[in-house]
Amino acid sequence: MPLSLSPAAVWPVIMLLASNVFMTFAWYGHLKHKSSAIFIAILASWGIAFFEYCLAVPANRIGSAVYTTAQLKTMQEVITLLVFSGFSVFFLKESLTWNHAIGFALIAVGASFIFRS
């Protein structure tokens, strides 16, 4: 597939990036507030996840005009790793090791095969 900068090719990437920011906070943001009751964490996570779905569902619908379902899913997984890496370092103050970098790089290499013709 040739590189296309059509809105149907670009908007899904932007929307999946934003949706992953919301989902990462929904899944892991509560870890910074472990003293809160678990039901509060669950309710807050559900509330945040609503906005993730408001972006992810249309991103996949729009993106399906340009990308295959496998490409959309692969794109989402790679974006998730990128967002999670930044979140882990900057929000949770955890460090990433060379093992993380190598593992994520291998996943990215594997993902690149999904986009080959």
Describe the 3D structure.
With 117 residues, the chain is mainly alpha-helical. The protein has helices at 7-28, 38-63, 69-90, 98-112. It contains four helices and no strands. The chain is flat and about 50 Å long. The chain starts with 6 loop residues before the first helix and ends in a 5-residue tail after the last helix. The model has no long low-confidence stretch (mean pLDDT 92).
- Summed up, the domain count is 1
Structural class: mainly alpha
Provide the residue-averaged pLDDT: 92
| Poorly predicted spans | none
Choose one word for the global shape.
flat
* Largest sheet features: none
In N-to-C order, the SSE pattern is HHHH
Report the strand count. Answer: 0
Helix content: over 70%
What is the CA–CA distance across the termini?
6 Å
How do the helices and strands line up, and which of them pair or pack?
Elements (H helix, E strand, L loop, with lengths): L6 H22 L9 H26 L5 H22 L7 H15 L5
Helix pairs in contact: 1-2, 1-3, 3-4
